[in-house]
Design brief:
Blueprint: H1 18-26, E1 30-35, E2 41-45, H2 46-63, E3 70-74, H3 79-90, E4 94-98, H4 104-114, E5 118-121, H5 124-133, E6 142-145, E7 154-155, H6 156-164, H7 168-177, E8 183-188, E9 198-202, H8 203-215, E10 224-227, H9 234-245, E11 249-252, H10 260-267, H11 276-293, H12 295-316, H13 323-342, E12 351-353, H14 360-369, E13 373-377, E14 387-388, E15 401-402, E16 407-410, E17 415-419, E18 426-427, H15 431-437, E19 438-439, E20 442-451, E21 457-462, E22 467-468, E23 474-475, H16 477-484, E24 490-496, E25 503-509, H17 511-521, H18 527-531, H19 534-548, E26 557-562, H20 582-588, H21 590-598
Parallel strand pairs: 1-11, 3-4, 3-5, 5-6, 6-7, 10-11, 12-13, 25-26
Antiparallel strand pairs: 1-2, 8-9, 9-18, 13-14, 14-15, 16-17, 17-20, 19-20, 20-21, 22-23, 24-25
């Protein structure tokens, strides 16, 4: 597909000058929203944010941060994370994000491999991780703490004091010295199949990605974007930079998963970027609530969704709905569909999902309700993005078309190849891996895909996740897993069958749905006990039988096991972005899997 040159929407050339440029344009507008200590939503203007970033940045310079030094940030998504990120880049440093959920040993790997001289931790909890590994990190010179104080860390307040006393011209010189060729990030991949790899991303890479995203008009000035995604992930980073670059407002979450939906109702954002799991949970909760209502209300709900789907179908085809459909939709919207939109605050213009595949049925459900949920695709190696469905130009089940400035094509073996200025520089300290994925200017993504006649890309699986059965059949498990996960009781599903005569599945149960199911059955909702529960087993078995009817015999699940506990990052089975670590899971439950084949 032809490559186009996206025109920038701001005069910023790097991420170091992004905030100063934005503050010059939008100075007195709100840039941040967050819950203060009193429990009320507070705001900070672009001018105020810039002042704080400058103080912190100069404090880092006084602390000894040099151009090109690696600074890790270990903490939850919060305003201070963003302040330190911009401050470090403005000083010419390379930011190395670390997930707040990482264990001490996982932090050690990133810090040691990147050669970080400084690490910024959120609080005492994160500081304890550094204390546990400090002696094994000779390159690490200083720890800085966002919240609170400790004898073995420089507090944020102290750093700002150091910055206040420094020469302002030093900061201007540091910002001006950063070029597009300089490295702004080393972002470590989730490591689903092996040790994490450090993706080296330049200022030019991210600036190109921002220009591409902004040409698509996904974010607008003055709009509020609710951000809860971990800033250690490139998806959240791109949203953070994009919102501020166009003069929007970031509403930071309260760092409590149970407060995401209530916060959406309070903030009423125009934009809500998320991962599929959140939309799945909201969808399942709404569906369960309608089912529990029973009778007329349950029937009305199903009718309203069908009407919404018919209305969207007519609109998507560019036709005008007839009088009857319009009247039906008015009733459906007033009684049902409007309440679904209000879950997200009622003002949503864009709900973007990425980082993992989402069930097309969930997209259709929210589309019917008027929730503008769009799926996009990208990876760390593309500085976040690559393809996207856009308002008025979407195909459910695809990840959209390439964004302006990105080329895509399909290799002979079905692998998706990508080329553009947003493609990363390579893997840090791993030339061999870099040569494997960057060939003649094309990034070999590892994703299997197809491109239709209209240019929409469909991801069909991962090359490394293909199951080859004992009979030599190649099977992509993700589509089967996605259909099995549609049942409210199912939290995770892992299909296994490599070099085996047939496919089996490991199932985990969703605790919220389990509690409701147990109440209906009058039984204890403890996961281990419910995994052995006859009614639960029969329910899952019936669902898998239904799923099997949609697949060829070789792709059907012949046996399954319900595990006694859910898969977690703490248990090593999931990445911080909730992706399955298949080798870990297969190894950990080897006996269970063998039992499915031997008994």
């Amino acid at each position: 597909m032809p490559q186009t040159d996206p025109s920038p929407s701001s005069s910023s050339k790097t991420l170091a000058d992004l905030l100063p440029d934005a503050a010059e344009q939008y100075g007195t507008n709100d840039a941040f929203m967050f819950k203060g200590e009193a429990g009320n939503w507070e705001t900070r203007t672009f001018d105020q944010v810039l002042d704080e970033v400058r103080e912190i940045s100069l404090g880092l310079v006084e602390l000894g941060v040099a151009h090109g030094d690696r600074i890790s940030i270990l903490g939850n998504t919060r305003p201070e994370w963003t302040l330190f990120d911009f401050a470090a880049m403005a000083a010419g440093a390379v930011v190395v994000p670390i997930y707040q959920t990482n264990s001490a040993s996982e932090c050690e790997y990133v810090l040691e491999h990147s050669g970080a001289r400084f690490v910024v931790v959120e609080n005492e909890e994160q500081l304890d991780k550094i204390r546990a590994i400090r002696d094994s990190l000779p390159a690490l010179e200083q720890t800085i703490q966002m919240v609170g104080e400790a004898e073995d860390a420089v507090s944020m307040a102290r750093l700002k004091e150091m910055g206040e006393a420094a020469d302002r011209s030093t900061w201007d010189e540091r910002v001006g010295a950063v070029s597009g060729d300089d490295i702004c990030k080393i972002v470590y991949t989730s490591g689903t199949t092996g040790p994490p790899k450090g993706c080296v991303i330049s200022h030019g890479n991210y600036r190109a990605m921002l220009n591409m995203a902004e040409q698509a008009n996904l974010l607008g000035p003055g709009e509020t974007t609710f951000l809860f995604l971990p800033l250690a992930h490139v998806f959240a980073l791109l949203i953070q930079y994009g919102v501020l670059d166009v003069g929007g407002r970031i509403a930071f979450w309260e760092r409590d998963p149970l407060r995401i939906v209530p916060s959406l109702s309070e903030v009423k954002p125009e934009n809500f970027p998320s991962v599929p799991r959140i939309f799945e949970k909201v969808h399942d909760t709404i569906i369960a609530g309608a089912a529990n209502a029973g009778g007329v209300k349950a029937g009305l709900f199903k009718w309203a969704i069908k009407v919404g789907m018919r209305m969207r179908e007519v609109e998507d085809e560019g036709r005008t709905p007839n009088f009857i459909l319009r009247k039906q939709y008015e009733i459906a919207d007033r009684l049902v569909l409007k309440t679904i939109r209000e879950v997200f605050g009622g003002r949503l213009k864009l709900a973007l999902t990425g980082a993992a595949p989402i069930d097309p049925e969930i997209l259709r459900f929210f589309h019917a309700a008027g929730v503008p949920l769009l799926e996009a695709w990208g990876m760390t190696e593309t500085s976040t993005g690559g393809t996207a469905n856009l308002p008025g130009a979407q195909k459910v089940g695809t990840v959209g078309k390439p964004v302006p400035g990105v080329e895509v094509r399909i290799a002979d073996d079905g692998e998706l190849l990508v080329r553009g200025d947003n493609v990363f520089q390579g893997y840090y300290k791993n030339d061999e891996a870099t040569r494997e994925v960057l060939v003649d200017g094309w990034l070999h993504t590892g994703d299997l895909a197809s491109i239709d006649e209209d240019g929409y890309v469909t991801i069909t699986g991962r090359k490394k996740e293909i199951i080859i059965t004992a009979g030599g059949k190649n099977i992509t498990p993700v589509n089967i897993e996605a259909m099995i996960k549609r049942h409210p009781l199912v939290s995770q599903c892992v299909v296994v069958g490599d070099r085996k005569p047939y496919l089996v599945a490991l199932i985990t149960l969703d605790q919220e749905a389990l509690t409701q199911f147990a109440a209906e059955q009058g039984t204890l909702d403890e996961p281990a006990a419910m995994a052995r529960n006859k009614e639960v087993h029969e329910t899952i078995e019936n669902h898998i039988d239904d799923v099997n009817s949609h697949f060829a015999s070789v792709e059907q699940i012949k046996r399954f096991e319900i595990l006694p506990a859910d898969l977690t990052q703490e248990g090593g089975e999931l990445t911080p972005t909730m992706k399955l670590k298949r080798p870990v899971i297969v190894s950990k439950y080897e006996d269970v899997i063998e039992g499915l084949y031997s008994s």
